[in-house]
Amino acid sequence: MANNDLGIRFTNVIYATKNDVIRTMKISIVDNIWKQILEYRSNFNCVLSLEHIDGSHYSVCLAPMIIEKVTSLERKMTRSMVNLSKLSREGKRKLFNESYFKILKDISLKYKLEIEDSKIRNIITNESSVVSPNEIFLMHYLNVLKDIEQNYTQSIDEDLLGKIYSMLLGTEDLMEFYRTKELDNSFTKVLVNKMYLGIPTNNIENAMNSLFSFVNNSTLSPLIKAVCALYFCYYVKPFETYSEEIGVLLFKYILAYNDLEDVAATFDLEGLLNHTDELERVLLESQKTYDLTYIINFVSTYLDSKVSDVLDNIVLIKKDDIVRETYSTIVENAPSITENSDNNVEQIAKVEENRESSNQINNNDALIYNKNIAITSLPEGLSEDEARKLENHLKELYPNLSNGQAYFYARHCTIGMKYTISQYKKCLNCAYETARTSMDGLVYLGFYSKEPLKNKYIYTPVKKK
User: Fold this and answer.
1) 308-337: per-residue pLDDT in tens?
2) What are the backbone dihedrals phi and psi of residue 113, each rounded to the nearest 5 degrees, phi first?
């Protein structure tokens, strides 16, 4: 067989690994064949800015088969976004709820949570009054999905990563950010060609920063960038827990940010979390060869059927919308009700009852609210003018104090109150790490005391002369 034919066969028919070639050709030594395949792939290779921990750059092979697969899937995802926009408000809510049900089922399967389908549906519709500890994580995960649905213009950066992590943990304040414990990873014990699914902690921040730079600056397709982000979350394992889930969610945020908007939340990529062995094999192959095409090909194949499911559901829901609209039109154009029919009398009574109920809700003048609260006196801080004076005084008295620290403390120094890192972050509109180091700096200077509360820290003003 000609050299070019082998390259085409094992790249464009299937994107084969070296072991795949050995099995297909039924010979144990395929070095010459593999060399021919790599020579063919080199014509389509695109070197990425992403680096392995050993300094080698990752690449993707933009061969015809890969380009067609990625392009076809992106067209299908775009069609799902357009079709979703044509649904009624009720139709959209139904699609999201049905998609979230499948997703939460996959999450519960990963953690072996024995939860009835009815309970999951109650969590989604916010009708569950009592939630067990096992079910709380499903609520947290649902909150992130709804955030993708509603806030799909968020920048892809460290702040977003911290937001996802804190939402999964169910707290606004993180006691720690990136992982600080080394993983017992058997792959790293090999002296030559070390393999990682969880890199050393001192490399995590640089690795994630390089990922964000790649995602925001690369001209490759959004799908390829999203898959690379998913790979990196597995490869780096940036957090103590939920790194895999964060990889899946970051994948969706990237698609949502790159013009797919809210429909990205509905794609059930979470099912991959239950294909551990198969996914890990592809991840390690990509790492061993520095070729992320393997994971791109794998994820694209898996996701294609999931996007098809979303499109099929939209069609069914659209039919329901048409039926509902047609029925409403028939009712509006129906003959007027006669007084001689007992059934019609009942209908009139129901209409009047609904109208009275609606009038009562909408007539604000008729509603009187009494404010009966347990706390009758609220502590008052400084006025804005007083805060500005204190801010200037602090900067003169403490040269090492940053402008942000002086601004925040001057407005958050009431004795008896307790403040958090999230308040600093929101007040100064800064990164989470900046907020954390600034608050700890104020503790060091004696402005606050710091103490843990469950899974976050609180900062209490200390009396100063």
Assistant:
1) 999 999 999 998 878 776 766 666 555 554
2) -90, 120
